[in-house]
From TrEMBL:
This is 2-dehydropantolactone reductase. Keywords: Oxidoreductase. Gene3D superfamilies: NADP-dependent oxidoreductase domain. Residues 26-265 form the NADP-dependent oxidoreductase domain.
Length: 280
């Protein structure tokens, strides 16, 4: 799996397995199988209720061969809105770490959304920065932040570590071109969540996509993940279906510029989940 260098100097695998909605009963096994299939990056959150199981799947893979090293795998989790604020975030980070004690550290901790407001966002960031200094967390970032939220953080006089990523919803039907380009210009990498539109657009490809699917003998999921990578993003496709794990990272084709623009839907705005990049 290719990697991308973040502003922290750390290398992250360019595709991560989204772990939202993977039932607890199968999460450990799916994560283990994903490691075997070549995944080296997992995205979960306090909200998803499966951090323990994601950690267990990674641990099982690490223990399955002495050639498997902790440094090869990337584990991301996110503090939920109720964990914002300095003391709450401190406690939240401790609790996140306890759930994956075998992993020893968290590769990346994100603030799930900007919804706790300007003051608490900075207080939360202070706790996140301290977690980096204590070696508990290697990278910190944000999610669902708009330009004004990141500007606030970048201009804060307490800033020690800029956010390594902004994780936002991006697919051809929710392109967020301006925000994504601006983040990349600030050297804040863009993680694309719901890159498969939560599954909604997969079964009925637009007619103009069909020749592209036929040319490369690929399915819609492969096309959307490749599109995201060629835009320079870090897509986080989710699947709980073992058979889809491998195909979602088998992407040995290159879309032409013309095909990329056929896939672009700049006039669409169809987010699948919540929208808080515009929150105060
Ligand atoms: N920061 C945030 O606020 C948010 C973060 N996220 C992150 O992004 C990840 C991805 O987003 P998510 O909403 O889960 O949705 P995705 O866009 O990844 O779509 C997942 C859906 O696509 C299906 N699917 C996956 N691969 C294939 C395939 N090859 N063929 C057909 N269907 C397929 C899955 O089915 P099945 O599983 O049954 O195979 C599932 O129904 C999340 O898991 C989470 O980690 C998501 C939303 C918000
Ligand atoms: O993966 C996610 N799915 C969601 C749905 C609603 C709010 C947050 C999220 C996620 O982080």
């Amino acid at each position: 799996m290719k990697t991308i260098r973040l502003n922290s100097g750390k290398e992250i695998a360019e595709v991560g397995l989204g772990c939202y909605d993977i039932p607890n009963s199968v999460t450990k096994q799916i994560v283990f199988e994903a490691c075997q299939a070549g995944y080296r990056h997992f995205d979960t959150a306090v909200l998803y209720g499966n951090e323990y199981e994601v950690g267990q799947g990674i641990s099982q893979w690490l223990k399955s061969s002495k050639d498997h090293k902790r440094s090869e795998v990337w584990y991301t989790t996110k503090l939920w809105n109720s964990q914002c604020g300095y003391m709450q975030a401190k406690a939240g980070i401790k609790s996140c770490l306890e759930k994956v004690a075998d992993l020893q550290y968290i590769d990346m901790l994100l603030i799930h959304s900007p919804l706790c407001g300007p003051e608490e966002r900075l207080n939360t960031w202070k706790a996140c920065q301290e977690a980096v200094d204590e070696g508990l967390v290697k990278n910190i970032g944000v999610s669902n932040y708009g330009k004004h939220h990141i500007e606030q953080l970048l201009s804060w006089d307490g800033l020690k570590y800029p956010p390594a990523v902004n994780q936002i919803e991006i697919s051809p039907w929710c392109m967020r071109q301006e925000l994504a380009q601006w983040c990349l210009q600030q050297n804040v990498h863009v993680e694309a969540y719901a890159p498969l539109t939560h599954g909604y657009k997969l079964s009925h490809p637009p007619s103009e996509f069909v020749p592209i699917l036929e040319k490369y003998q690929i399915d819609m999921a492969q096309l959307l993940i490749k599109w995201s990578l060629q835009k320079g993003y870090i897509p986080l496709p989710k699947t709980k279906t073992p058979a889809r794990l491998k195909s979602n990272i088998t992407l040995d084709f290159e879309l032409t510029d013309e095909e990329m623009s056929i896939i672009d839907q700049p006039d669409a705005y169809d987010p699948t989940d919540w929208e808080c990049t515009n929150a105060p």
